[in-house]
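agent: user wants the structure for Heat shock protein Hsp20 from Halorubrum lacusprofundi. delegating to structure tool.
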Amino acid sequence: MVIIMNRNSPFDEIEQFLGRAPFGGDRTWGRDLRATDIDVAEYDDEFVVMADLPGYDREDIDVRATEGRLTITAEHDAASEDADRRYLRRERRHESVTRSVDLPGPVVDEDASATYRHGVLTITLPKAADETDDGHRIDVA
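agent: tool returned. relaying tokens verbatim.
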């Protein structure tokens, strides 16, 4: 008979609830209502950042790349859409989301592009040319 014991203590869930992520991370418990989840991918000639922003319109989203840092801001005001209605129950509210991430390397800000489809924002940032020229290596025979 093999007994498999769970290595997590009951206090792990409490620490996550209090905002302490396992493995020494600084992520808060659950999903922060003012932040968005992102993925950053690196390819040969570009970085691609994908952010989950469901429920926003393109006009609600602002993306800026400055000095090696990418900042995504989205703001949605449900109240302004339905100002003339009398609600019996109201749960939708003004929401603002901001997320900044340091880019893993230098990029060409002017050539960056972004698309927004099905609640996912995809930002493509071309890498800047490597300015360190080590010259041409000559093999010794």
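agent: one observation worth passing along. Residues 1-6, 19-33 have pLDDT under 50 and may be disordered.
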